[in-house]
Design brief:
Elements: H1 3-12, H2 17-23, H3 49-56, H4 75-88, E1 92-96, H5 99-110, E2 116-120, H6 125-139, E3 142-146, H7 151-157, E4 163-169, H8 181-190, E5 194-198, E6 215-219, E7 233-237, H9 239-242, H10 252-256, H11 262-269, H12 275-296, E8 301-303, H13 313-319, E9 329-333, H14 337-350, E10 355-356, E11 366-369, H15 380-386, E12 392-396, H16 403-415
Parallel strand pairs: 2-3, 2-4, 4-5, 5-6, 10-11
Antiparallel strand pairs: 1-7, 6-7, 8-9, 9-12, 11-12
Helix pairs in contact: 2-4, 4-11, 14-16
Bound molecules: pyridoxal-5'-phosphate.
Pyridoxal-5'-phosphate binds next to helix 5 and helix 6.
Protein name: Methionine gamma-lyase
Keywords: Pyridoxal phosphate
Family: Belongs to the trans-sulfuration enzymes family.
Length: 417
């Protein structure tokens, strides 16, 4: 995508993800069922030996209904990819067995040995570990971690001709820093660097590709699945990157095999049409909680991009799709690990406000102490650098129950602190 089309799209921003999804091709089932069929077979036959030969030469393919083997391409997974691409506004998308396999495949596609990545210092723990330990040790791909808010620092860290990827999360985990996607993309593209954005925290809310990013990755395990019952991921982007990842000789999808099960692809496909409604519910409920919490205790250290005092409040507002909000995750800094644990114990066991657990996007509220759970692989210094205090409690806000019922559960637990 060239810069010009990006700018036009930012200005118009006409088609919001839910509309794009509704406008996308609807796959009917084999017998005109209103849901698509599941293509469960892992291998496919051909009408004759010539057709088989031509399939292997790449002369015919999915466009003419010809498939070879499901690690390469499966029609059900391809259909789910079409939905995800429509949602993200990218040319194409492909789905994988996990968010981590989507992320690691993208790095292995875009970086060669000796390559260099510039990444935000606040990242999902697994992504941080991949860049800190695995990629340098196994592939000689090194990373410079930067403060993603400091555009000058980001610019300086990218080495023209050596850096191939700028990597960050649209809304960071767990510190909820919002990245300036249009500006970061401009800086990176000026140096020939590809921009890869993890949009797990903000599906539907933000469309990073429309704001200038080249590739968008997702952990489907979170909001997109919505039931905390599936591990899955997706890579969204232009065909010249995503389709290349299935190349039989060089592609990480094909050669490392992070393949999604088509039965799972079917299951996820049915949840995407109500993702928009769910995201709005999560966002609205989160905003209501933080507003009430600030009233309840003005000294409470609440972190949420929906609050006016959040440093990227207006930035998020300017980038986000209409009628969503500021995300379904907020944090409270209880200052010490002891107080964080006490609050979570009371909220789960005394008042049934939510469950202690990592992950996010579930319909019930999930709470975790990031420093000692999802980000425990960072050492003390790295946590300090990333702004993860030991008492930080992350709430992934659920939407079940009435607000009044849930708020009374919260205040009951909080009054016992
Ligand atoms: C959970 C998560 C991942 C990893 O995804 P899995 O599906 O668990 O492999 C990556 N990035 C972010 C922001 C996440 O929250």
């Amino acid at each position: 995508m060239d810069r010009k089309t990006v700018n036009v799209e930012i200005e118009s921003k006409k088609e919001v993800p839910a509309e794009a999804l509704a406008a996308a091709r609807h796959e009917l089932g084999e017998h005109n069922g209103i849901n698509m069929s599941i293509e469960a077979s892992n291998t496919f036959t051909f009408k004759d030996s010539d057709a088989m030969n031509r399939a292997f030469l790449g002369e015919v393919g999915p466009k003419t209904g010809i498939y070879i083997y499901s690690r390469h391409l499966n029609p059900t997974i391809l259909n789910l990819g079409r939905q995800i691409a429509a949602m993200e506004g990218t040319e194409t998308a492909y789905c994988t067995a996990s968010g981590m396999s989507a992320i690691s495949s993208v790095f292995l596609q875009l970086c060669n040995t000796g390559g260099h990545v510039v990444a935000a210092k606040t990242l999902y723990g697994g992504s941080h570990a991949l860049l800190t330990h695995f990629l340098p040790q196994k592939c000689n791909i090194t990373t410079t971690f930067v403060d993603i808010v400091d555009l000058e620092e980001v610019d300086k860290a990218m080495i023209e001709g050596k850096t191939s990827v700028l990597y960050f999360e649209s809304i960071s985990n767990p510190t909820l820093i919002v990245a300036n996607i249009p500006e970061l993309s401009k800086i990176a593209h000026a140096k020939g660097v590809k921009v890869v954005v993890d949009n797990t925290f903000a599906p539907m809310i933000l469309s990073p590709a429309k704001l200038g990013a080249d590739v968008v990755v997702h952990s489907i395990s979170k909001y997109i699945s919505g039931e905390a019952d599936i591990i899955a991921g997706a890579v969204c982007g232009p065909a010249d990157i995503v389709d290349q990842m299935r190349d039989p000789h060089e592609g990480p999808f094909m050669l490392l095999g992070p393949t999604m099960n088509p039965k799972l692809a079917f299951e996820i496909s049915g949840r995407i049409p109500h993702l928009s409604m769910r995201m709005k519910k999560h966002c609205k409920r989160a905003m209501k909680y933080v507003t009430k919490m600030k009233e309840l205790d003005p000294n409470l250290d609440v972190l949420y991009p929906g609050l006016k005092e959040h440093p990227q409040h207006s930035l998020l507002k300017s980038m986000s799709n209409k009628d969503y909000g500021f995300g379904g995750v907020f944090c409270i800094d209880m200052k010490t690990e002891g107080r964080a644990y006490r609050l979570m114990d009371k909220l789960q066991n005394n008042s049934k406000f939510g469950f202690m657990g990592v992950s996010l996007g579930y319909y019930e509220t999930l709470m975790s102490c990031s420093s000692s759970s999802t980000n425990s692989m960072l050492d003390t210094k790295e946590k300090e650098r990333a702004g993860i205090s030991p008492g930080l409690v992350r709430f992934s806000v659920g939407y079940v129950g009435t607000f009044e019922q849930k708020w009374s559960q919260f205040t009951r637990a909080y009054s016992e602190m």
